[in-house]
Inverse folding.
């Protein structure tokens, strides 16, 4: 659905910043920020909202699997409800392309969950 788009970094500690360009209120929103010190921080918007099983575990597993498939990724660690730390040499475009494909597969489940809550 949405395409990765590079934007101006939010702050001086960031070397690159990417967002997934999706329609407003889409459950597939995500972003990736490359630190000047190295590594990426990846944020998945829906992960902050999804708090019920089995959708929460399925989403977290798919996010991790998608990020690990990206060329250059050496490790993925979940840091917070909606934040993953990615180490290695991937591109922001590749991270969000892989992540977007995983999120798109969950879109109907995300929408049904949000409509029910």
């Amino acid at each position: 659905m949405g395409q990765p788009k590079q934007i101006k970094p939010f702050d001086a500690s960031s070397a690159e910043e990417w967002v997934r360009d999706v329609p407003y209120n889409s459950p597939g929103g995500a972003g990736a920020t490359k630190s000047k010190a190295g590594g990426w921080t990846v944020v998945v918007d829906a992960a902050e909202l999804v708090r019920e099983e089995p959708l929460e575990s399925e989403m977290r597993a798919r996010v991790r699997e998608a990020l690990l498939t990206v060329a250059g990724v050496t490790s993925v660690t979940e840091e917070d409800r909606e934040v993953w730390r990615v180490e290695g040499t991937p591109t922001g475009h590749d991270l969000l392309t892989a992540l977007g494909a995983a999120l798109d597969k969950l879109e109907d489940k995300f929408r049904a969950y949000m409509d029910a809550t």
